[in-house]
Amino acid sequence: MNAQHAKPTRRDALDNRERILVVAREALAESSGASLTAIAKKAGVGIGTLYRHFPNRESLIIELYRHDIQHLIDLAPELAASHPPLEALRRWFDEVARYGQLKYGVAEVIHAATHGGLDEEYYEPFLRAIAVLLDAAAADGTLKDGLDPEDVLLQLSVLWRIDPARGGDARAARILDLIVDGLRRPHSEPTV
Questions:
Q1: Which of 124, 140, 36 is nearest to 87 (CA)?
Q2: Is the distance from CB of 57 to CB of 36 less than 8 angstroms?
Q3: Residue 44: which region, alpha, beta or left (left: phi > 0; alpha: psi -120 to 50)?
Q4: What is the number of helices (H) and of strands (E) in the chain?
Q5: Following DSSP, what letter does each residue of 162-176 receive, concatenated?
Q6: Are 164 and 101 in contact (CB under 8 A)?
Q7: CB within 8 A of 82, min separation 6: which ones?
Q8: Which residues contact 152 (CB under 8 A, 6 or more apart)?
Q9: Band of the pLDDT at 25, cuts 50, 70, 90?
Q10: Tens digit of pLDDT for each residue in 38-53?
Q11: Taking Cα atoms as reference points, which of 31, 39, 41 lies closest to residue 56?
Q12: Using CA atoms, how far apart are residues 8 and 17, in angstroms rounded to an integer?
């Protein structure tokens, strides 16, 4: 068989898939209307290769969603183990804000394509990830006791409504500061 016509190895296919996802994440964060052709070109693959991995726009967006949500779920215990509790929480919140930039422009596609089912699949694991970080920060006295991970998730959900093209990073940082400040244990005033 001619080397030019050899089928790509499994590793090549996996590398192509990962490169497509990286480029698609960046392109969709810049513009929810990014074309699949532009994504393929920027990823250095043909449109046929993109379609072999992702037969349509919805499948690409759903895979990004799954990948990013799972990354956030896996990241929480890693951060809790490697950083002081409040720093771990804030670093995780920053990652959630980055994810929110992707979800901003494609939330309707995700919801329509999954009929809410994908959200349900990741809901409890996502709440457990939040709980890991809240529990660690409550145990060291940084955050209030008894915080409800679902309440925190509701606060974080504002992040997917921030338009990245209109000062999204700065606005997300300010909102996260407000959320963290609200979660902190109040310091008692010294008595005179």
A1: 140
A2: yes
A3: left
A4: 8, 0
A5: S-TTTTHHHHHHHHH
A6: yes
A7: 88
A8: 130, 134, 179, 183
A9: confident
A10: 999 999 999 999 999 9
A11: 39
A12: 12
Spatial CA neighbour of 123 closest among 79, 91, 154: 154
Predicted local confidence at residue 135, as pLDDT: 96
**Can you give the pTM of this predicted structure?**
0.77
Residue with tokens 């720093």: 87
User: What amino acid occupies position 53?
Assistant: H
pLDDT greater than 50 at residue 151: yes
Q: Of 107-111, 144-148, 159-163, which one has max mean pLDDT?
A: 144-148
Q: Residue 28: left if φ>0, alpha if ψ -120 to 50, beta else—which one?
A: alpha
**Widest distance between CA atoms in the chain:** 88
Share of the chain above pLDDT 70, in %: 83
The tokens of 50 are what?
């993109």
- For the chain, what is the mean pLDDT? 83
